[in-house]
Amino acid sequence: MSHSQRLPDVVVVGAGVVGAACAYYAARAGLAVDVVDRGPVAGGTTGAGEGNLLVSDKEPGPELDLALYSTGLWRELSDEFGAAVEYEAKGGLVVAGTPARQEALRAFAAAQAEVGVTAEEIPGERLNELEPHLAPGLAGGFHYPQDAQVQPALAAAHLLRAARLAGARLHLGEAVRAVRLGSDGAVRGVETERRRLDAPAVVNAAGTWGGELAALAGVGLPVLPRRGFVLVTEPLPRIVRHKVYAADYVADVASGSAALQTSAVVEGTPGGPVLIGASRERVGFDRTLSVEVLHRLAAQAAALFPVLAGVNVMRAYRGFRPYLPDHLPAIGADPRVSGLYHACGHEGAGIGLAPATGLLIAQQLVGKEPDLGLAPFRPDRFPAEDAA
Amino acid sequence: MRRSRTPAELVRAEPAPAHTIDFDGRPVPALPGQTIAAALWADGVLAWRTTRVGGKPRGAFCGIGACFDCLATVDGRPNQRTCLLPAEPGTTVTTQEGHGRADLDV
Known about the structure:
By secondary structure, chain A is α/β, with parallel strands linked by helices.
């Protein structure tokens, strides 16, 4: 059979970084992969992120296990893609404004150390050695050398390019209209606006829209959008060396509140602009620019790095993190529908967790035991009323 | 007789007398209402910035504030769009090297 006529072993729905990683590892495992997205590559949450590969903000548990595993995979991928995806093992610096906050960071880091996270305490008077522009008077911080960064849209694009070199096919700009099920209830493929793709397996990597795709297959998955804004400054010299954020960020990430939360997350980029986040609020898919959010982000960043008060912000963008009620992604085979796999709901950590997600899914697809237990990420773990 | 086709001629402008702005330490004539980019162009200056990566020369491109190619340091402030800023008496324009923020480097 010629290549163009071959039937896929698996259809991956979503050309964000998670779908790209699923396609990459599945194609490398020898599977015939088709990737479908209603928009372009990295057109959703991937294109609206900062590219954080973080272990520092995660408490011990399944997500941190996944992050540590994924951090190692990113290092391997950086050998393959390197500068093309702007991978930087820059390290993270979490700073505390008060001794009480520093004590909380110390306890957090001690618990993380037990599962393999490296963190070094930095007393307040030494913070300037790591970040010369940091505001004076901070109580201290913790340096996390395992934190890294990529340019997320480039990462998705290069993973997909490598997947295509391994035989994967890409269908962009066509939405999936139906997930086809056989009389036995098992997945038979998908129908897009333009074609029917017959396949015994479908991976739901639709990110924030993963709940809608799950519904097409007849199952519930309560993915909700959590909006975030990022400010982009004019190009600057490397005035921010690490990923720097305030201790409050960890609490904001873990919060289940729908109300607006902001905490300063500041980082430089190889391109020159400094990126300023992070806000979280549950307002549906409302894309309205919020002046209040932008104001708070700018004020918090300038409090951390006073030099930023004198530079121009060129633009702001927003995106929607795919949020599940317990802050864990849905990864793996769905016990409710044979042949349906989920790889979505990574909230703000999807760039970092993408390689681990893709590799674990690929292992399941070829019938191997996944390297990491997927029980905490079971897609059917939510009560039906949540999923409705 | 060949008619002049300058923009000022075309709109039959009757501008007030020229003043000067300072460009890299030398005076450049400017008409009231002219932008910095227009004054520099009229004086034969086509580039007043270098790119961040390759150090290539840049000047006016779109001329209407959209493309950010015409940036320069104006009165000490880097990254100003010269196609939007008026060339007022005494305005000081400095050729900008790269991002123009070398003073912030650490």
